[in-house]
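Revision sheet: structure tokens.
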Amino acid sequence: MSASQARGAASDPGHGGCRRAWVELLAGRVKRQKLGPEGEQKVRESALRLLRGHLNLGDLVLEVEGPPGKQLCLNRLIDYDGPGAHIDLSSSLIGSALRDQAAQLGVPAAVLCSQVVASGLVRVCEADAVPPPKVLLTPDQRKKLSSLFEIAQNLLAQSMFSRLSFCQELWKVQNSLLLEAVWRLHVQNIVSLQELLESHADSQAVVAWLSRDLRLLCEQTEAPCQHADVARAMLADFVQMLVSRGFQKNADVRGTVDPEWMSQVAVAVLERMLASALEALAAGIQEGSAAHKAVSCWFGVFSGHMYGSIISTESPKRFFCHTLTQILTHKPVLKVSDAVQMQREWSFARTPPLLSGLYRRLFVVLSPEELVGHLQEALETQEVNWQHVLSCVSTLVICLPDAQQLVDGWVSRLLTHAFESCDLDSMVLAFLVARQAALEGPAAFPSYAAWFQATFGSARGFHGSSKKALVFLFKFLSDLVPFEAPRYLQVHILHPPLVPSKYRSLLTDYVALARTRLADLKVSVENMGLYEDLSSAGDVTEPRCQAAQDVEKAIMVFEHTGKIPAAVLEASIFRRSYYLSHFLPALLTPRGLPRIPDSRAALIESLRRADKIPPSLYSTYRQACSTVGEKKPEDAASQREVEPSCKEEPLGLLTTALRELRASVTDPTQRDALLAQMAVISEQLRSALGLGEDDSDFEGAPVQLSVRAPKLQPWEQRVVDLLLTSFCQNLMAASSVAPPDRQGPWAAHFVRTLCRRRLLPALLSRLCQLLHHQGPSLSASHVVGLAALAVHLGESRSALPEVHVGPPTPARGLPVPELFDILLPCRTQESSALCLKFCTAAISYSLCKFSSQSRDISYSCLSPGLIKKFQFMVFRWFSEARDPPSWEDPASSPWRPLCLPSVDWQRATLCLWKQRTLRELLKQEGLHLTYRDWLQLELEIQPEVDSLSDTERQDFHQWAIHQHFLPAPAATGGCDGDLEVACATLVDVLMDFCQSSRSYDHSENSDLVLGGCTGNRDIFSRLQEMAAGLEQGPARLGHAAPRGHFLFGVFCRRLQALARGWDVASRLQRQQELLMCKRILLGLPPSVLVGSPRLEQLAAPDCDDFFHLVNSELRNFSHDGALTHDITAHFFRGLLNACLRSRDPSLAADLTLTACQTQCPLLLTSALLWWPHLEPELHRRWRRCSQSPLPAELRRLQEARHFAGSVLSPLAAPPTPGPAWLCAAALHFMIRRAGKESIRRELGQLDGQGEEAAGSLKPLDVCAEVLGCLQRKRISWLPLFQLTETDAGLGRTLLRLAPDHQVRLLPVAFYSLLSYFDEDALLQEDAFLHVAVNMYLKLVGLFVAGETGAVWTLAHSGDLQAQGDPVSLITNARLFLLQSIPRCPKRSFSDVAELLGASADCDPEVRAALLSRQQAMLDPDLYQEPRLF
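Predicted:
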């Protein structure tokens, strides 16, 4: 039997029978004999040989003291030197054993010892039951390693340990090594970390192993455990070693390998650790996760105290610089355009705290100058991660004390280099850095607007050195436009770079480009707030919200200065649209005025005294404040409510009562108890809201509701939500049992319970929130329930007050049913779907609920707007509904599909559409969808979020116009087949829509209808198509004589309906209307302006309607005696097109332009102004169809321009080549364009050119010099102030060139100019007294009529700067007149009777002076001295 079999037999009780004891086995042995001293020595030596021959070195080095009775006491076996040497017996035994083993194996003892210790180290590391990965030891492992390291140290002392062999053995099993064991080798001075790393041949493997274990160490360092101190100490030692070896200036030559190798390994490990941390941040780690803890731990190694043991400070500094470079260049995937667009996302507040903390630690070691230099170097030499670069800039601006000067100097250097060498990279970097710094607020850096204005807003700017620099700047800004945030574009427009006048086109081109981009982004420059932060590139704030912020800021500034803020004054002049439409309404919000005026009241009063608040608006504000003050005590009493904690019990009782109502609604046997239950609900509701007994009485007070921002108290919302939820649930539960007409009156009683004075505003506000703001999120049961609620509110409309809703709706009282028409727009696909569902449910419920009652009841419950919207949406969404309907079975109920668990809205809608009852309903007056209604609804559609594609929308438009509404009779809202009527209605609705959109949506975009919204362009495209059809179609029967275009009839009717006045509001309203008229004309073919003559007639084209529009309306909004370029060019295009279709084109053009001289001279002066732009187009169009030269009248305009140019040249002026006034107008425009302040030299060249050439300049400009020139030539200029429409020739022409408000300013001009001339010379002229009195009477008439303020505003807004205020001017004029009357010659009183009649009611003193002077002329003897002798 073998030894193993024997051991098995001895130990296995079931093998070969019963187990035998050791005593039995040894019973047959010979009894041990006693040995003498020599025998004992031999036995002891034999034992030693036996032990040495069978010694397990691996177990021997791991022996430690264990519990009593279990220790292996080898010293007792081999200790034969006596008890005093037992301390070193283990080491002696191990050393002796290892020396003997090495001799037997023929290897050096140091190598064998290293192998044995390495094997023991690995066994200790593998002894833990916790699976990898891990880096820390357990307490038991640390105890075993401590004994092992003592043996290793003794072996080192005996020179029996090879570090190199030891390291090589460890690398063979590197995956089993624990990082703490490696660190303890370093701490115990057995093998240093550097020695261990240098001993590995594969640097990549070393980097991967150490990086992996360092990451694990970082995770365990931040984990809550008892060994965290050990982990932190380990990390510090490793980082210090890596930094000192990786970034030392002079390599340590004592190493066994190339120092560069060790440096590369150290740098690679540090780079990999940082890269993994940055990638974890980019992936969006969650706070508290293991990855977050690891990143936080590693970033903590950049603290300064970590490197205290490193003697040289250069290594940490180089390490920090290298780290900053790695951060800036980590994964540079973003382009500059991405940085421009995403820059605001990388501010300091949005930078991950870990990354900003790392930046701050790096800033501690690097000086500010070194930091900026390092940033600059990285940006110039490498591809960078723009997110890290700009977030670093933000951190720099926030954390460094002198960051503003630092960044300012850096940006200035970048801009200097950029403009000197046209370096685009430096330019981009400068703008990005400045914008990033500005994002951190004015406390850290000036706003972007301030920086841009300071940098480019003066002649000393970087761009002012040359034209090349200007071109470079605007090329750069233009390239940025597609990527710019709206804020920056607004800054560039409102604070443009200072550009010399000769290069102004560069700026205007850029501004046009920027405005176009803003229009694409649907952002208005005019609606910017007064204190809006332009440095933040965030989303643009709504004007209404910004206005409230502006008001608070303005009040704060007013409190500190006691003066009206400059921003408010500037806005009242230069940004009146925002000031009047947004700022003043926000400032003048009605409130109860305090007894002692507060800062708000003081600011309002200051603005009123400065005439910055329109009187009507101020009066309305004061009246509204008085109303609020009267209601204040009542409101205060009504607001005395118990605390919410005290209301919980009433709310619970109300919930219980509503739950019991549901049982009554669904059980037909309990319907008799409905009224009693409703009384209980009413009582609980009164208790929950603290309502009084009289709360059901509205006393005629309207309900105030803000559609844009409905507000209600949280407790009110809880109650209303509870009521609405109960109503919807009850309705669905009742409908599952019976149709609406058999559900009893519970719903009507429920709604009456809701219609309380305190509850109704909260109910309507909540309905506004649900339908207008949260509509798409409503479920089908919610929509059905709220629709039924709307029907019952309509049923109670006579008992409900009107609702005054805020913007975007008209400020008028609305019945409650019409409120739902406003809450349910049809602009987008989502809102249209909700509107269709709501209308379907409401109409179906109404038709079913009141099917057995009078139809008038069901009609009164519904809003006509909702019924029309239902028709509109059905036509739009369901093409089958456009065909004649096939009637449904009368027995089928449209309400049935709405009660299913899953509502099929399409089926429900089509089922309702095919109901005969609906058709009968639509026959009622005011309920049928008309052509005008369809246009109004279609204009609201936003095509970009429309349910129809562009093609489908166009097909729908064609069907609706040409197949549905055009042939329909006018009685049903159609057009009777008249395409002209269809066009006129479309234009009328289009203009109404534009006006309402501007007024209620707070949009100042002048292109709202025709350029800013695609939906409006679609409708306008239909107008263009129909207008083209009218031109190409046959002539109308019964209209053989030509008549004006229908458009001018629409314009005339609308303009006549507007109030005429000289106040700002009336003028702005008319100007807005005319702007829309002009835009519509520009969008249609130019033939609309100029009717085509017939081929068989030699007649001029028909332009009378357009001439009338110019003379009566456009003239009053012309500037400097000319229309705008667009309408002028459009007219001449139409003129050439019409003339080229006649038998004699030149004759037709000459006839028309000749008529213009007397009928519409403003068109000719406009052509002169825009001639450089018009001439090429006119030549091109004329030569396309005719080889003859331009018509004579066009050449006359050309010659007038040449004449004006020659006058400005040093050469002598040629003779006037045509109507003198035309040449004078051309000369005026040339002088204005040349920017000359004095025209005396040019006027001096006009000797002999005639009175008209000089005199006609008066209505156009520079009055004093022109009149002085006339006076020197002994030409009277007084007739210029006596022009009337009945004058022939020049007088009528001049009146048709000047706007009416300028003509009304002639008295102001007359008395403002008198100081320039000699009074005695003026008094000798026969007409002077008549003119002076006439001008004075007209001046007094302006004052008496109350138009002085408006006229004075016009005077100061134009070129004419009247002296003083209106009262002082009238006073001075009166004094001048009274002093002049006695000095006038006798011939001046030839028509004094007319003057006396005119001055009878205006000024008695002037009348008396005239009468006295007249009597003196008639009887001179009365005034002679008597002859006494």
